[in-house]
Amino acid sequence: MKKHSLTRQITSIVSILVAGAILLCWVLNTTLLPRYYMHNKKHVLMENYETISNASEQDKLESDEFTVTFDNLCSNGNIMTLILQPDGKVLRSSVNDLDALRGELWNVLLHTDDMEVLYSNDQYQLLRKNDTRLDSEYLVLVGVLENGDMILMRTAVESIRESAAISNRFLLFVGAAAIVSSLLVAFFTTRHITKPLQQLTDISKRMVDLDFNAKYESNRSNSYEVEELGNHINRLSENLERTISELKTANVELQDDIEKKIQIDEMRKEFLSNVSHELKTPLALIQGYAEGLQECINDDAESRDFYCEVIMDEADKMNKMVKKLLTLNQIEFGNEAITMERFDLTELIQGVINASAILLNQNEITLNFIQQEPLYAWADEFKVEEVVTNYLSNAIHYAQGEKRIDITCVQKDDKVRVSVFNTGKPIPEEDVDNIWIKFYKVDKARTREYGGSGIGLSIVKAIMESMNQKYGVINYENGVRFWFELELAGEESEITPAISEKNS
User: 474 with 488: CB under 8 angstroms?
Assistant: First the structure.
């Protein structure tokens, strides 16, 4: 296909646009102007009637205020107007020749002249009337107002001044439309012609900013030079993108390796430090009591049994702590997969309660859990069981006063909040944000007494964050409430009224 210069293309298009605009204006002026002129005259008469009718409804026809309005309506539209009361008295007239207007009215009513009905309704008729005597044409509106007054309006169709004004106005509209159309067509046409150049410019700008997503799109209507340039830029962009992508990939991998190494080293240091600190006391006790047995400090059987019990108890604490640390380490490193499944939360909580029955009886604690109906949730069932177990174990060890534990399930929208409340001392405010940290203990003496390691709540934190669910703690005057949230699953999630979240 032969390529043309931009100058030739634009010149040809503009020439066609100008010729088309002139032809369009001539056709529209020739064919539509008479209709537009007649339509405009009819519209003016109807508007004047509506204005006078509104004034009649408001009983303002004889007011001084309406006099100005009436004169403007008649003079601006070159309209002769006559308003007669039912008794024939003239109420309003725009001309002094009342007899001529009365005669016009009777001619219309009696259909004595050549007339054509253009529009008719219950209030008035709009007529086209030929006056053969004067060789002229009129538009006549005759009708009745709301108060019973008769109205006659007449305007000449062949008014030179008015015709010229309407013609000029029409040409203004047509000319403006033609100009706008020509500009729009020229704009889009020029944009089409210059689009490939603009496209190449945009591509080069994006390449400067190392953005290589944009590609030149070939078009047969473009010149050969533009096509060649576009193809070369595409190849250049692809080569640069591939090279930079390889460099960025290598850089990201290197950075990730460095960050992972740093993170692993920090976690190893923290892990070794915490473990060594936590194992120091039980190891010292085991060593001390073992040396006592070896040296036979107490020969009686009761003392030896006591020494052995202490050693076994400390070893059991060390074993539990190591297991919890391994569990926490797996969750934090993401080595333990999350299995989302639908399960009965009520059944799970009841199972944890049954497993803790011995501890509850030993500590003389009353536990309230009134949820009976199945409550289905989406989560990792075994990890949720670990959370509930840690919350309940913590509540058992810290329950004081009336020694009561309340487990509640409260549904809100598509979530269920599980809470474990125990009576006792509230957590000091300065410790609330720290209880989720590994090895942090609010009451170290009491924690040591029941064998706590300060890891349980950090496991809760890691589990809930791995499932992207909320958790927290609320202090009350008479106790502490730990809570977590899960997503409900299915309509079987209906729950019975539970114990109120509010405690006083």
Answer: no
